Amino acid sequence: MANTDTLGALLLENERNRPRTPAIREKDLGIWRTYSWADYAQNVRDFAMGLATHGFGPGDKLCVAGNNRPRLYWAELAAISLGGTAVPVYQDAIATELQYVLNNADVKVIVAEDQEQVDKVLSLRDGLTGLEMLIYDDPRGVAEIDDDMIHSFEDVQASGVAHGKANPTAFADAVAQVKPTDIAFMVYTSGTTGNPKGVMLSHSNLVESARAFLASEDVRESDDLLSYLPLAWVGEALYGTMVSLLSGCATNCPESPETFRRDGRELGPTGFVAAPRSLEMILSEIQVKANDASGLKRWVYRTFKNAAVEIENRKAEGKDVSLGLKLMQGLGEILVYGPIRDQYGFGRARWVYVGGAPLGPDSFRFFRAMGINLKQVYGSTEVTGLVTLQSDGDASPDHVGKPCDGIDVMIAENGEVLIKSGGVFQGYYKNDDATREAITEDGWFRTGDAGILESSGELTIIDRAKDVGKLVDGTPFAPQFVENKLKFSPYISEAVSFGHDKPYVCAMIAIDMNTVGNWAEKLGLAYTNYMDLTHKQEVRDLILEEINRINPSLPEVSRIKRFLLLAKDLDADDAEVTRTRKLRRGYIAEKYAPVIDAFYSGGVEVELATEVTFEDGRKSMLDTRLTILEAA
Question: Are 427 and 527 contained in the same domain?
């Protein structure tokens, strides 16, 4: 009898107990296609047996590269069911990033979604030391390649069908041999301070973390979860794979990351986990549409939005809500809140979690005010993506909730958050020194986050411990807090604030190209590209107005005094942010050192030469002169 604490055993259990229940859907060419748990298991079985005929077995590594597609999920489960390890990578990773991960992880097989991913792998072929087999999903542009290493997904499954007929118990036997302590996933860290590290997560890590989530959240077999976050993010392994396996609910893959909002509106998911950037983009779009509406519609939106936010604030402060506000809320539900939820795919959502990075408090309260049950989840790759959750009645931007059952949280003397749970990883692959640094002798994982554990049990995260600083006068300075306030503006895509050991706070601003571009077009302001747009005096004045509007909401000592507009957005390809949009502060401080010097030396302009990386890996230099502006 297979151990039901492994992923393959859970899959077979679903095949037995709910064979016709929807397990996964994908939207392709405008049509949703549904696969039951029986379909899911059979596809995994056939692919696993196909891998076995090509020599894949226990301890081997299989990488998936591409967008969220059922076949990539099946490939992961197939490798894991054979005792191997799934190594998902970011679909937009440039070639050099990909090569590092593939070699560091000793990947033997790659399953690529399409020609783009196949071409990327083939460009690295000579430098991939362990690669034996490249399998593609979408045959367009790939099927005619004559190469013994390259195989189609269908061909591998066909060989698996033949092997399965000759060995009918082979798949179940392989699943039974897998132990809960075996490594199921190797998820690479975002690499904010250097090369990413391979985090080894066992079957037990994943199962225990998913069970802790399900003990805290109402997830039903009939639920539809929207799965659009990158497969390489630990949250996708936990929520897109494990929660589905344990609860029996369906995972739903949109046609592409760019269409997830439209597809989500069609689907009407009952729950999903969102990245802060996704919600910030939705909020910006809502704000822009409201600003572009007729005078009456704009007045209706702002009036009822302000009433809803006031109600949310009063609830958070424990104050009574007046009858007048309640009547406004009822009318606003018809005119504003309900239509917004329907338009952006929240119509059926019972819960939406935001995780991976903080969402600004103003943005958080906005979505709550619109009637969306938005809550925070806190975790990291090394703890399988889960430490704390907020409950329905205690959602707040001021903390990240209480630890889930079976998860212990402690604050070290230096203020660092320490975690002990069944989700704590098995170590960093081929990096024992880093593992010893990350886990204390008595088994506590050092998160690197500075936090406070309130007497009520809620955990408050202040910032990354290494990023929390002080102004020159000793005033505490948390850059992330300032940046989140700035990103509430629909015109600001990213912000980097400086202030540690400095007399005041300054910021580099990356504009939101779509929002500012639309604004400029409505004014008849001609521009050619991002850099040209940022050099327009009208755009500088626009961002100055935004900063002067935001500054009063910041503590006086944290208000922006000087700022500039970057000539390009911060880009993961240029190593300025991670693939999950976390700032790589050390690298940014080094790369933009002339800007920081100009901020604090009183300069009004700065010459800057920055290296930019194109999608194909080519590099070029961007020379520009940036103007430093003074906030009011």
Answer: no
